[in-house]
Amino acid sequence: MERRTLTVNEAADYLGVCNDTIYTMVRTEEIPHFRIRRRIFFSKETIDIWVREQEMNHQVI
User: Fold this and answer.
1) N or C: which end of the chain has fewer CB within 10 A?
2) Mind listing the pLDDT tens digit for each residue in 14-38?
3) CA 24 to CA 5: how far, in whole Å?
């Protein structure tokens, strides 16, 4: 069974950016995420949809 959530490190690897970029995007609410206590997680499906939306809007990620 494939995990459907990503940690900050995994999201950074998946998107090809550094961890600091992910933390900045979380802080400025640029990227969809959720927290369990203090830990930050991302839904892989939601990230895929978000990336497609960014591509369609020609926005710089």
Assistant:
1) N
2) 999 999 999 999 999 999 999 999 9
3) 19
